[in-house]
Amino acid sequence: MQPRKLLLISCMQILLLALNLQANPEETIRSLNVHLLRSTISALPANPSVHIALRLSPEHSLQDERKYLHKLKTDLQGKLSRSSGLPPSTGLVALYLLAFRASCLSLSTVEKAVPYLKKELRAERNHLNNGHVPLTNYYQYSLGVLALCVNNVRIDHGILSGLTPHRHHHHHIDTNAMMVLALKCVHDSKMPNNAWMYSNHRRTNVLLAMNKLIQQIQNHQAENGTIGNIYSTAVALQALLAVRDEARWLKGKRALIEAPKRAFDNPMALSQLLPVLYRKTYLDIGQMDCNDEHDGLNTTKLSATTEPNFTLTGFVHLTVKNISKADICKAKVPLRRRMSLLEVLNEANLDFETKETLWGPFLTSVCHLRAQDAERTYWQLISGENTQLKKGIKDYHPHGKEHILLQLSHF
Ligand code: B12
């Protein structure tokens, strides 16, 4: 068959699939759920955020979840005993603690985890006092508070007072949303005797901060339902659900269901999306009792998705600039097939380094120039003059003639 005819048929198939997905949202959500489950059987390192999403889903594959949980426990033990790699960050330990609570494990399962997270939160707070920003970022600070709170651990006054929207900082939508979840949890926390865990004064301050943040999120909802980009929309919808703004959640949910399915190929992205499609938030983890769970999910029913095999032509142009916006190196790579930016960088023969994160490889150094967390610099990925890429180097696939700028920037 002629290549053009084949391309036309593939396009029609994609269109039909898209129409089909929109026609049946329940099926779409279920198939996303199966995709996420499938990611746990792959060779990828275990990801606590994926486990959280699977646990918040109405249908389970309990045997697969048990195996994954075991992997997570062993991984965290290794990380905390420093037997492998760098000490884990606040947000990472927080995600593990949320994942364990979502499987109804007791806090003593990994004994060192809570004291470690408390210590990290104190370090975040000290850094905030001295340098006006947390040690990692407000997203992780919030995750840390949320994880302790959902596990019913009382949080020190000093730590809580650091969790306020800062006038001089422009936060991501994602960060605002995670802060809302943490604050909402603190506000609603009760003791075993049903009394409020925090004083009226503290709860009033928390409510004020939360209202400010939620208003910013609400104001950012576009006509089409998105709040920021589709990835921040997923996290923002959790915040909206937490404050029972059902109307805006529904509008956002529609936008997410209509988003191209491939946008959520990355398991981390999918793990942040799935809970809100099921009307769940991380706050629901605190209520989970792990009884009478529906054990009906399996990966075998999933039909294999075939990649449309596009022939690409042209070159990808790479420019690397230092913090003063001066060129430090350039490259031109022919595009013969669908290639990720990571593959393009490899072909370009540029010197570069990456760090593994839950989202995949994070670019840390290019042309012997290293971004420094301490100096708050990072390698920003830009298409053309100033379009920020919405995906990382492994997930983004440049098109022919595209100019990619790797710009050392401040965050
Ligand atoms: C804070 C943050 C940053 C900070 C991280 C540094 C710091 N010390 O704070 C900075 C500003 C540097 C950053 C950069 C980027 N980010 Co960012 N970031 C976040 C945010 C708000 C929180 C991440 C976090 O701390 N997670 C908690 C911990 C426990 O997880 P972790 O995996 O261990 O955390 C590390 C990684 O997440 C890594 N990281 C941060 N962003 C990204 C993006 C990618 C693609 C990768 C691989 C890693 C990575 O930095 C974290 C700290 O070391 C998330 C929001 C979200 N919804 O998750 C967006 C988010 C992950 N970032 C995103 C993007 C697109 C980017 C950039 C590609 C933007 C760009 N065009 O340059 C770059 C990464 C480029 C590179 N060098 O590879 C998207 C990813 C979407 C996707 N589908 O891939 C998100 C979801 C924001 C959004 N809604 O669009 N980011």
Please explain how this structure is put together:
- With 411 residues, this protein is an alpha+beta fold.
- It folds into 2 domains: 33-287, Glycosyltransferase (Alpha/alpha barrel); 315-410, Ferric Hydroxamate Uptake Protein, Chain A, domain 1 (Beta Complex), CATH 2.170.130.
- Helix content is 48%, strand content 11%.
- It contains 14 helices and 8 strands.
- The strands form 2 sheets. Strands 2-1-8-6-7 form a 5-stranded mixed sheet, with helices on one face.
- α9 packs antiparallel against α10.
- It starts with a helix and ends with a strand.
- The relative contact order is 0.10.
- Mean pLDDT is 91; it is low at 5-21.
- Bound molecules: cobalamin.
- The site of cobalamin has 39 residues, from α5, α7, α9, α11 and α13.
- Cobalamin binds next to α5, α7, α9, α11 and α13.
Task: Map the helices and strands.
Layout: H1 3-23, H2 25-40, H3 48-56, H4 62-80, H5 90-102, H6 113-131, H7 138-150, H8 157-161, H9 173-188, H10 200-219, H11 230-242, H12 246-258, H13 267-277, E1 315-321, E2 327-334, H14 341-348, E3 352-357, E4 360-366, E5 369-370, E6 377-383, E7 387-388, E8 403-410
Parallel strand pairs: 1-8
Antiparallel strand pairs: 1-2, 3-4, 4-5, 6-7, 6-8
Helix pairs in contact: 2-3, 2-13, 3-4, 3-5, 3-13, 4-5, 5-6, 5-7, 6-7, 7-9, 9-10, 9-11, 11-12, 11-13
Bound molecules: cobalamin (B12).
